[in-house]
Amino acid sequence: MLVALAAAALAAVGTTTYGAATAASKPSTAAKQLGDPDYGVCRGTSAKCYHDWGNFDTSKGIKVLLYTRTAGPRHANLGPALGPGLDPTLSEANAAQNGMIALGKKYGFGVDWTEDITQLASPANLFKYNAVVFLSTSRDTLDDAAQTSLRQYVRGGGGFVGIHNAFGTEYNWPWYEGLLGGANFYDHGHDQAGVVRTTDRKDVSTRDLPKRWAFTDEWYNLVPYPSKVRFLAAVDEGTLAQGVTGNYHHPGHGSKHPVAWCQYYDGGRAFLTTLGHGQTDFDPASTETGVREFQRLIVGGIKSTAGLEPFCR
């Protein structure tokens, strides 16, 4: 049944209802000239871009699939590559995965984890989860079957959460770039302490955060710059003692340097954050400065993207 619904979601593209929503969100000529494409889908902050096919039940809680496969650089907090299958054995060095599982236990959502691409190759398998979380994946981490499956899942109303180097993934796939909010990783400055400004405190992911909070990260610079999204948090570049310029000399984004945002995309929901580089960022027991606020941000993003809380408001 889920596969049939996914197929129906794909078939819905180009229908009068979906076409009208796409037309309503179509950027102006001026916006296109400024690099604000619509990626051929309905995207933005309007719930009109969401497809509610009844594929997901939150009455008994939610469960997410954590995907951390890397096909390029691998962040230290991921630890060694995981074995095949679902929920393979983790070592203490798999800090990010262990932390996400612990956060799920603390905040009431289930987590399965994998780096096995075959676990993403079936829409029926993805529809078992209220959201799919890409945490510091890298480069071409999906094959054709997994790409198609992810699109079917999102178009069927699925939730997507992209954390940190999810922005360094699938560079040559325009649909995925749109899923990230029309943004991609370009470079980053030094791993250093800074101050995050909570720019929107209405969303469930940010409503309990202070207006300003300290955090340490790499502070990604982005090309393209996110568009047609609801910005939730930004880094105050003036607080970065070593500056924001990266290896490829990106000058930063000035007074509007986003680190978290949300959007509806091609029938689904997406919550994105460039933060999450640190070794203890996902550990609920961490006492490092700002980690508690970061965890509130991503937990709220996961719950809203999964449909347990209001999304992107």
Keywords:
single chain, 313 residues, Rossmann fold, ten-stranded mixed beta sheet, 8 helices, signal, Class_I_gatase-like
Report what the structure shows:
The chain is α/β, with parallel strands linked by helices and 313 residues long. It has one domain (2-305): Class I glutamine amidotransferase (GATase) domain (Rossmann fold). The chain contains eight helices and twelve strands. The protein has helices at 2-11, 16-24, 29-33, 95-107, 123-126, 144-155, 174-179, 291-305; strands spanning 43-44, 62-67, 109-114, 131-135, 159-163, 185-188, 192-198, 212-217, 220-222, 230-236, 258-265, 268-273. The strands form two sheets. Strands 1, 2, 3, 4, 5, 7, 8, 10, 11 and 12 form a ten-stranded mixed sheet that branches. The protein has a two-stranded antiparallel sheet with strand order 6-9. Helix 1 (2-11) packs across helix 6. The radius of gyration is 18 Å and the shape is globular. The relative contact order is 0.18.
Question: What's this model, at a glance?
Answer:
InterPro entries: Class_I_gatase-like (IPR029062), ThuA-like (IPR029010). With 313 residues, this protein is an alpha/beta fold.
